[in-house]
């Protein structure tokens, strides 16, 4: 066998592969020993935290606030490339195995540091980094020690030993993957067994949905509901293990089990949820039938101190947001939701319990896998995204969107249907108007909606000649506010501007 591993390129490849193997093992081991976050994710967090304000803000502006998966990818790529460079350089300066091992130790130490500055539990991450480092060096050594054809007995034994080790490693990794998935499977099984008394199926009023072909339905199926969170692996929380603590500036702290929660009065309502990162015309929005327990009576029971003005919500994976106390205690249906569209929440959307609050963007209100509510003050605490430059308060802005025709569509001439949605949750939409080719505003017909907490569909028809056309839309809220044409980016508190669609009539 002409040995590729003798070449520097071979060493670079071995470096890259061993780096990836190390990361994979650190990820698996961390989860096996009960951690929720891979060391890579901890490094990504520190990158976000330590980048100078301006850079972080620009990044947030370009990738919205779903920046963590992107950063994690970046960290994985960086480690792989560095690992390849180390392999290449190591071959140039010496064939001693401790040279790359020492260089990898420096990278692993950075990972360890990132894990150690994270909030507890830190032990799983530490074990993950140590095992990942071990795998990294081991795989590198395995790949760079030249293999000769098994001519004599000794080298044949060596060859068998090495392939055996690699195969064994693969089996261990596969088994580890199964173990990691087990908790999730158990939680999925518990979810299927749940029967939620008081939870009913959504009953769609035909008047809610205008039924325009190619328009997203008024009721968003759970499978199509947008998902935004910082979790690389969504936390698997069994209902039997779930606890909610309500504490902080209250007279009587409360701790609830899942059964305690379900023994309360169940409230159900329609509510549209949207993300502050949504761009004009974007689809980070969905409408669902939510069932759960109103938070206001629970806070009343706890006895909120008069100086308190916010509730810091924390999820099972340590995500936080700070919600103004008035939206949790007024008469709106801010609730600890257990079901979406008549079914228990899916794991991705917060099983077993999440908060939903009509009228606020998700990043300041809609904590999935919620486990802790601390009554506090805005001058004492802040949530995950506020800490990264997003606005402390996030009431939803009046917005509207054109769904039909799609941008760039080619439609037949004559009567052209224009349709879409408009929303400002907990305020309501009174009117929607469109303007074709910069002409006068003309009213669209609105669907009926059950309340002010959902989006509303609208439609109209226009007669158009062949050629290129452009249509834009603006809404008027129930309080008479006309949607602003001023363009604003999502950061720091939500995009504004009129959605405009260009299409062709033939
Ligand atoms: N635990 C947790 N809850 C979270 C988030 C998160 O990152 N972690 N993201 C929030 C944001 S920014 C939004 S827009 C909504 C999205 O909810 P969905 O994924 O169910 O659509 O969840 C909110 N709740
Ligand atoms: Mo969001």
Automatic annotation (TrEMBL):
PANTHER family membership: SULFITE OXIDASE, MITOCHONDRIAL, SULFITE REDUCTASE
Pfam family, one: Oxidored_molyb
Region of interest: Disordered: 477-496
Protein name per its UniProtKB record: Molybdopterin-dependent oxidoreductase
Keywords: Membrane, Transmembrane, Transmembrane helix
Domain named Oxidoreductase molybdopterin-binding: residues: 234-385
Domain of life of the native organism: Bacteria
Residue stretches of biased makeup (Polar residues): 477-486
Source organism: Nocardioides panacihumi
Record carries keyword Repeat: no
Membrane spanning residue stretches: 12-33, 70-90, 97-117, 123-147, 159-177
Keyword Repeat attributed: no
